[in-house]
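> call design_seq(struct)
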C-alpha cells in the first residue's frame, strides 16, 4: 500500500529535513519547508490531543522530547529556506 502522491511528497520532504539535520549549507524550496512544517505541526497536535485525552503526563514528555529532537532540523531547514529566498 502506498500513500497518495501529496502525502508521499510531504513525508518525503519531512524525511529529507530530518536526514539533513546538520546541513546548514545549500537551499531549500518553500514547498519542502511548508511540507516539513505541516507534518511537524500535525505530529505536535496529535501528541497534544493524546495528552489531553490521557492527562497522565506521558505524552507531554514525549512531546517535549520530540520538540527537542526537532529543534536542530527545524533551524537547519529554516536557514536553507532563508538562503534560498535571499538569492532569489
Amino acid at each position: 500500500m502506498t500513500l497518495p502522491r501529496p502525502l508521499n511528497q510531504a513525508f518525503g520532504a519531512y524525511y529529507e529535513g530530518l536526514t539533513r539535520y546538520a546541513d546548514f549549507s545549500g537551499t531549500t524550496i518553500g514547498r519542502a519547508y511548508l511540507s516539513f512544517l505541516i507534518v511537524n505541526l500535525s505530529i505536535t497536535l496529535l501528541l497534544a490531543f493524546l495528552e489531553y485525552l490521557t492527562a497522565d503526563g506521558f505524552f507531554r514528555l514525549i512531546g517535549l522530547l520530540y520538540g527537542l529532537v526537532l529543534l536542530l532540523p527545524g533551524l537547519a531547514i529554516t536557514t536553507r529556506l532563508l538562503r534560498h529566498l535571499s538569492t532569489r
